[in-house]
Amino acid sequence: MEICRNIQLIPERFFSSNVYVVGENELTLIDAGGPNAAKKYIFREMKSTGIDPRKVGKIIITHAHPDHVGGVPEFLEVSEPEVMIHEADTRLLKLGGIKPGRMLSDGDVVRAEGCELRVIHTPGHSPGGICLYDADRKILFSGDTVFAYGIGRFDLPGGSLRVLVSSLARLLELDVETLLPGHGDVVLRGAVKNIGTNYRYALSLMGESNVRGIP
Ligand SMILES: [Zn+2]
Questions:
Q1: Which of 122, 176, 180, 191 is close enough to 187 for a disulfide, judged by CB 3.0 to 4.6 Å?
Q2: Which CATH topology does 2-205 take?
């Protein structure tokens, strides 16, 4: 389903993540879903909206958990995408037998069709977790760092609540209208409020009180 111009959402199913397809001709995928997800439903859903999976030229992985990265090998079978991931999660990716094509760092820019995506390193859920920010359209792809109504788990290996809170604080500096997370609902308008609410929730888990000036 098209959620913004040039961005399709393939909602999560089974053990998988939301997958976003950016572009119409030269496609960029944000996350690839879980193992076998592409063959089970992602290819089919892409084709049903007129998108050819063989046109995927880039796959940006928000972090190397299996429900986001497991589908990469299936895309590698039908196309030759450049796989991009933050350098701190490359070890996890290689454990899954996938070789990264480009290692990303905070501040890097990835060009997709019709937009530029700035990499924001947001560890806490995973050491190499990233968000991708389209400043022109105020869109944030937030992986498992923050959801519409909650925050990512911080109890998995390499996770940390304190680090996640700092990452959320960084996201609050951005002007975000639309939030496109790795799981669950998307937020089309006023998403800075959702990020603020979820940041305060994360702070409360640390036993700290509210910080003034947060929306
Ligand atoms: Zn995850």
A1: 191
A2: Metallo-beta-lactamase; Chain A (3.60.15)
